[in-house]
Request: fold
Amino acid sequence: MKDSLKLFNSLGTKKETFISNEKGKVSMYVCGPTVYDLLHVGNFRGPIFFNFLRNWLEYLGYKVNYIYNYTDIDDKIINKSKLENKTTKEISEKYIKEFEKDYKSLKINLPSFSPKCTEHIDDIISFIEELIDKRFAYTSKGSVFFSIEKHRDYGKLSGKNTEDLLAGHRVKVNDDKKNPLDFVLWKPSSEDDPGWDSPWGIGRPGWHIECSAMSKKLLGSKIDIHGGGVDLLFPHHENEIAQSESRSSTNFANFWVHNNLINFDNQKMSKSLGNIIKGRDFINDYNSEIFKFLILSVHYRSILNFNKKLINQTIINLIKIYSALSLAENLSNSKIEVKESKEYKNEFESYSKKASGFINNDLNTPGFFSVVFDMVRKFNLEAVNKKPSGELKYFSICLLDFFNMYGGFLGLFQEPKKDFILDLNLLILKNKNIDVADIEDAIEKRDNARIQKDYTLSDKIRDKLNTEGIDLKDNPDGTTEWSVRV
Ligand SMILES: [Zn+2]
Reply:
């Protein structure tokens, strides 16, 4: 019997034991990107985290229907289309393709389905009609607004109350609204903007309504998990609750799960600060494995502070893990006959229990990785201090199995080990501004010095490389191997 998952619910702000509405099935809707540009590193935290959550739920025995939408009509898309003299469809289609390329390079599982807002206009219109019929929404000069006063629970997710929100509205806003807090469900399109025919004239949906309508259409009125970045909690998700629960008179989502944001060197990433890093650029400069490991090494509800130090630490940690895995692979491929060891077996059972315990406790990935490093340390200690044996081979197999299994959930540890270690070493050198050709030159000079028995020079070269973090290993046949110290 697998232990149950405790998940932090933003609705009620506490951890709760996860139970699905329908036995063995989970419906999960996560707000996806607005497609008008390449996404920055922060935008990928959601896809990487929710992939892990979905995979873990599947491991716990649920069949998960995971919807991740594209907002393909919005002011930003319209502005870009005007700037580039293209249609909004051309812009959104282009950036959906670009996003899907980036997603593929992450090497994680796809969502079950990714609907587009513009393909659900009919569903959105009928959703709004129901809200009007039930008097939760009203029309005004070609627009339709949701009436905040009609939804008594407004603020239950964000903890905001309407009086405080109203006090914040000093400027007189939109005369068409009955209450300044009412939000738009449908707005008229001007002549050169894209629009769809509706009972209220040519127009387009407001942003919040698309997720309520698509979620209802694809998953039903009551879902298990609604997710997204914490920046969406208010007003987007609060407004989704207002719309969906007013329409259906039932709870919309049992669990609201929010991943936190990514800062860069303790500053918010923003265009004006010029510190935005595109996900694609990071993956090209480094690697998708480094990207995923870095994101998952911080708990999803904590702010992740992206900086050079964290990137370097991530690379070093990955070298440690992959080096142990490479050693384990060598041992498991050796001709020694495997021998089950009770001691190692018990130890692995205890590691596994701890690891899944951390994950079941609100997907505590930092805790999980602490178990991983304990295990790697233990393995290295045994592998270095003991002669290869059947028991050690058994340990190696257990280690590889563990990483295969948990790596599958996280979307990690599936790279070809030796090649990947080499890539990581080269990245460390790049970050230290050390050229591989310079190292090889220095080694050649040192080899020549040794041939000429100039040991003062050969020692000097070795010491200089050592201070740069390059270790040399002289082989009996005269060749020298080098490695980066981590
Ligand atoms: Zn949404």
The chain has a mean pLDDT of 94. Residues 434-484 form one domain. The longest strand covers residues 223-229. Residues 31, 211, 236 surround zinc ion (CB under 6 Å).
